[in-house]
Design goal:
Its main location: endoplasmic reticulum. By secondary structure, the protein is mostly helical. The chain has 13 helices and no strands. The relative contact order is 0.16.
């Protein structure tokens, strides 16, 4: 933990820089409001799980691997990649999910405004005179006065009425202010933040995985050849090995949807490619080199530095397509973006990985 503490900040920095670049992209290129969350998410969130779990074992198993012994490299690399996936999943569902959700809510509110009014609401236009309605506050006050009369049976004296009013005025005002503040907080939270996404299955799995890996007594129970509950680790490993190719196949199956329906501008796709495969990797080199220079990252583990650099170079996160399907917003456009970025990912990752391997050994 003392060595890996910088990784969450590194992922957060990549999200912040990607969001800034995505915001600049939205200012330069006109993007429909409904797709703003998708574009920001594709610029900010990279595939910090599946890509690393595929690349790291392949690099470690190569002959003459620059990271030393194959078994040690594979074990450490999978640990780094798993932590990266867990952190990226939490950030993704807290940030990108809410960006897409806000865009979807704006679309639904706009569609509600465009709906024609029903005949019942327009009945006053037919010439009938509408009955004036009292404000709700006046109705409540009148009904309250009526109940007070029934309970007391008589009208209180002027002096006693003044005493009751003075005694009850401050608590009622305080309760009203507290209720207004609570309602405003709930309204803001429902508009801009959905804390239920913190308990999405992938996020819960990431949190549980970190707890098992960090807490020594739980780790000794479940992980290792002599662990009493090692069957849980074996079963989870089997599911994990099957999950990576399965998810990749699902993404590939969803890609052709956008080719028939999407009308996304080519300039937007090219801009996202430039952000993810050109600008972000350059900024990643600056961030990691600055962290090593300041002593925030140890320079003795080149594999750890290599993964920190790769976190700035991956294509958009696969779960973004899941989020767009949940809200029915930008599904075809997401497919087009994924088709372009993942088609170029092998070339970009190969070139940047070659440069990263040279940097971590010099």
């Amino acid at each position: 933990m003392t060595m890996l503490w910088f990784m969450p900040f590194n992922v957060l920095i990549s999200f912040i820089i990607g969001s800034i670049l995505g915001w600049i992209l939205l200012k330069i290129i006109k993007v429909p409001d409904i797709l703003r969350g998708l574009v920001l998410g594709c610029c900010a969130a990279g595939n910090l799980g599946n890509i690393l779990l595929i690349i790291i074992p392949a690099v470690c198993k190569e002959r003459g691997s620059p990271f030393g012994d194959t078994d040690i490299c594979n074990a450490h690399g999978l640990a780094y990649a798993s932590l990266s996936m867990a952190i990226g999943t939490i950030y993704l569902w807290l940030y990108v999910y809410n960006m897409v959700r806000i865009a979807a809510s704006q679309r639904s509110s706009a569609s509600n405004l465009e709906e024609p009014k029903s005949p019942e609401k327009n009945s006053n236009l037919s010439g009938t005179t509408a009955v004036p309605m009292l404000p709700s506050s006046e109705l409540c006050s009148k009904s309250q006065d009526h109940m007070d009369k029934l309970e007391l049976g008589h009208q209180p004296e002027p002096n006693s009425k003044a005493l009751i009013t003075v005694a009850d005025e401050k608590p009622k005002k305080l309760q009203t202010r507290v209720k207004k503040i609570v309602l405003q907080v709930k309204d803001i939270a429902s508009k801009y933040l959905n804390l239920k996404t913190l308990f999405a299955p992938s996020t819960v799995g990431a949190i549980l995985g970190m707890i098992v890996g960090v807490v020594a007594p739980i780790r000794k129970l479940m992980i290792g050849d002599t662990a009493p509950l090692r069957v849980i680790q074996d079963s989870t490993a089997l599911l994990g090995d099957a999950a990576v190719p399965t998810i990749t196949l699902i993404v590939g199956a969803n890609l052709p949807k956008g080719l028939r329906k999407s009308d996304l501008k080519i300039s937007v796709i090219i801009s996202i490619i430039v952000v993810r495969f050109i600008i972000l990797p350059f900024t990643g080199i600056l961030v990691v080199k600055a962290a090593i220079h300041l002593g925030l990252v140890s320079g003795s583990d080149p594999l750890y530095q290599f993964i920190l650099l790769l976190q700035f170079t991956t294509p958009p996160a696969i779960n973004i397509s899941t989020i767009t399907q949940l809200f029915g917003v930008g599904e075809s456009e997401c497919s087009v973006i994924f088709l372009a970025t993942y088609a170029l990912a092998p070339v970009a990752l190969t070139l940047w990985s070659t440069l990263y391997l040279w940097l971590v050994h010099n």
